[in-house]
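Incident log, structure service

09:12 report received: a user says their structure output differs between two submissions of the same chain.
09:20 pulled the input from the user's history:
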Amino acid sequence: MKIYRPKIYGGTYIWLLIILAIFIFNSYGNINKGLYLGALLSTVFLGFIWYVVFIFPRYSIIDKSLNLNNFLEKKTISIPSIRKIERNQTRGLYPFFNPYQKGLVVHFNIYDDVFINPNSEDTFLQEILKVNPTIEIIS
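09:34 re-ran on a clean worker, output below:
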């Protein structure tokens, strides 16, 4: 079993700075009044959201299946059902709103696809191709 973590780009940390700026702006009045607990809980909550969205996803290859674990979704894809993988793809409306700017789009079954962003794409693709060498890789 191999586990791959997501790539962390600079956009991820820009989002963290935006969250912290919003927190400071909203809680400045409460801190001046001595209400530290609300500010602390807000910081912990926003930090947890940042972690779940940007750091938590995991991709693992177990036997002949690719497991995708996000905080809200767990998906298992049969590697023999993967038709093609596109490299250097972007998902989202604008690259700024998508902190994982480039990754892989995995096409499986007939019409299904999923965007993933493993830390080392080359070793990830080599492991996938060991199981199913007929997958078409599009650069």
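09:41 both user submissions now match this output. Likely a transient worker issue. Closing.
09:42 reviewer note: DSSP finds three helices and eight strands in the chain. The two ends are 26 Å apart (CA to CA).
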